[in-house]
């Protein structure tokens, strides 16, 4: 992959991938950093990306794995950065419905959350989600079904809708 092709790939995918990883992990700043790091690694492996059937999936998987690794390091007791000495970060305003969706997704089991994000937000077909996650298609279908049901209940509770109905608004 030449530099100009990589630049086009980056420009076309960065925001979409950041949104997808954000939906999976629930932290926008962390998602941005992980996607940036994943693209840096993709640049180092750009010859490999030429042969990859889905280079965007490679970057998304790398970013997600980076996020998981970072989370594990923090859980092991690494001191979090001192906010008093770090630069202030401004984040663009986010739609309230998006915030509610991410909050509801955070309450789902990780496997269901990942399947829902890859299928509905990344718009991947079930077979591609199964290949990316490394489980059978039937498992992904079950995770999607259970995840949608749980998500609908969580969002209905969040909006206070009687009878669990979902608004089209």
UniProtKB/TrEMBL annotation:
Listed transmembrane segments: none
Keyword Transcription regulation included in the entry's annotation: yes
InterPro entries: RNA_pol_sigma-70-like (IPR039425), RNA_pol_sigma-70_dom (IPR014284), RNA_pol_sigma-E_actinobac (IPR014325), RNA_pol_sigma70_r2 (IPR007627), RNA_pol_sigma70_r4_t2 (IPR013249), RNA_pol_sigma_r2 (IPR013325), RNA_pol_sigma_r3/r4-like (IPR013324), WH-like_DNA-bd_sf (IPR036388)
Domain of life: Bacteria
Keywords: DNA-binding, Sigma factor, Transcription, Transcription regulation
Domain RNA polymerase sigma-70 region: 10-76
Domain RNA polymerase sigma factor 70 region 4 type: residue ranges: 99-151
PANTHER family xrefs: ECF RNA POLYMERASE SIGMA FACTOR SIGM, RNA POLYMERASE ECF-TYPE SIGMA FACTO
NCBIfam families: SigE-fam_strep, sigma70-ECF
Similarity comment: Belongs to the sigma-70 factor family. ECF subfamily.
Name of the protein this chain belongs to: SigE family RNA polymerase sigma factor
Organism this protein belongs to: Nocardioides vastitatis
Lineage: Bacteria, Bacillati, Actinomycetota, Actinomycetes, Propionibacteriales
């Amino acid at each position: 992959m030449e530099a100009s092709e990589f630049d086009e790939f980056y420009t076309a995918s960065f925001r979409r991938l950041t949104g997808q990883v954000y939906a999976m992990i629930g932290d926008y700043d962390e998602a941005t950093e992980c996607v940036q790091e994943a693209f840096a690694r993709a640049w180092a492996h750009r010859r490999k990306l030429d042969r990859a059937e889905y280079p965007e999936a490679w970057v998304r998987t790398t970013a997600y794995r980076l996020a998981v690794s970072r989370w594990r390091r923090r859980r092991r007791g690494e001191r979090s950065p001192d906010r008093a000495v770090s630069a202030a970060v401004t984040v663009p305003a986010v739609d309230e419905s998006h915030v509610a969706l991410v909050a509801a997704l955070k309450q789902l089991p990780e496997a269901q959350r990942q399947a829902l994000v890859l299928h509905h937000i990344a718009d991947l077909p079930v077979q591609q989600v199964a290949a990316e996650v490394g489980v059978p298609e039937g498992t992904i279908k079950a995770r999607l079904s259970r995840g949608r049901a749980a998500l609908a209940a969580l969002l209905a509770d969040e909006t206070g809708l009687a009878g669990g109905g979902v608004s089209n608004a």
